[in-house]
Specification:
The chain has about 290 residues and is an all-alpha fold. It contains twelve helices and two strands; from the N terminus they run H-H-H-H-E-E-H-H-H-H-H-H-H-H. Strand 1 and strand 2 form a beta hairpin. Helix 2 runs parallel beside helix 4, helix 3 runs antiparallel to helix 4 and helix 10 packs antiparallel against helix 11.
Length: about 290
């Protein structure tokens, strides 16, 4: 296994790690956001358009993060303020993001950008930042007072509210953080991983990020392992094709998603594991009067 292979796995894992880290925080607060795929797509086209216009990759990533936050605020408005169903709202966000990004990105098809430069050991700065972000989230969740509050809200929202903690405000901040991380993941796709714009270029990575949070049992260390495992699977699908192995290309391309299905089946076979670690209020609306 050569160095280029390992570097390619890191690049494939980085958007998964970014998006799933943000979703981990949101779900720990009790919010299930199925709109990650749509958020990543809107962020990807926003980042690409910004860099194409300004020539600045830094502004491109900032635009991607901002697009993710704005999408997350729309989700928060629907689910935390108007108390709409979280599953339906997340799916609607993905459908909207897919269509909106295709519309806005139509004029950018065929344009190529220069990938962001490598930082250290052939790895770009965003990949290192994804690791730092996960470490920061782990420290915040398990070593700080507000991390404890966030987890308490996810486990028992009524008790946290009775103690005077602002449930909706904390959840809104968690959802916004998840949006910013999904935005960075989308920006990474269009500015570094494949520095161009193509419709549906995230190719289901938002859904894989959701599965990774479940796979990790809502624990940061397992999330890291899962992101790099799926990054390996995703790159292998390209690597095998490059070797000229006589395997149907459709099957090879489906490997990451088949792996997702297998992982979810294995997790569901051990239901007690999920019950032990899943936030008890995940997906439940909060009524202040309750």
């Amino acid at each position: 296994m050569n160095v280029d292979f390992l570097l390619s796995v890191v690049a494939a894992a980085t958007p998964l790690l970014l998006a799933s880290t943000g979703e981990l925080v949101a779900e720990r607060s009790g919010v299930l956001n199925l709109g990650i795929e749509g958020m990543m797509l809107v962020a990807a086209v926003s980042a690409f358009a910004t860099e194409d216009i300004t020539g600045s990759a830094a502004l491109g990533f900032a635009a991607g993060a901002l697009a993710g936050v704005l999408m997350s605020l729309l989700f928060a408005l629907l689910t935390l303020t108007l108390l709409a169903n979280q599953v339906a709202s997340g799916l609607a966000l993905t459908i909207f993001g897919t269509g909106f990004s295709a519309l806005v990105g139509a004029k950018f098809v065929g344009i190529a950008l220069t990938a962001i430069p490598k930082f250290l050991f052939g790895i770009d700065a965003v990949a290192y930042a994804s690791l730092a972000a996960l470490a920061g989230v782990a420290w915040f969740l398990f070593r700080t007072h507000w991390g404890l509050v966030l987890r308490a809200i996810g486990d028992n929202q009524d008790a946290a509210h009775a103690l005077g903690y602002p449930v909706v405000r904390v959840r809104t901040c968690a959802v916004m953080f998840g949006g910013a991380m999904a935005g960075l993941a989308g920006a990474y796709m269009s500015l570094s991983y494949s520095p161009l714009w193509a419709e549906n270029m995230t190719a289901g990575r938002g859904w894989i990020a959701l599965a990774l949070v479940v796979f990790s049992a809502w624990r940061p260390l397992w999330l890291l392992a899962g992101a790099y495992l799926f990054g390996l699977i995703m790159y292998l699908s390209l690597y095998v094709q490059g070797l000229g192995v006589h395997v149907p290309s459709q099957l090879v391309s489906a490997l990451p998603y088949l792996g997702t299905v297998v992982v979810l089946v294995l997790i569901s076979s051990d239901a007690s594991r999920g019950r032990r670690n899943a936030p008890a209020c995940l997906g439940r609306p909060f009524h202040a009067a309750s």
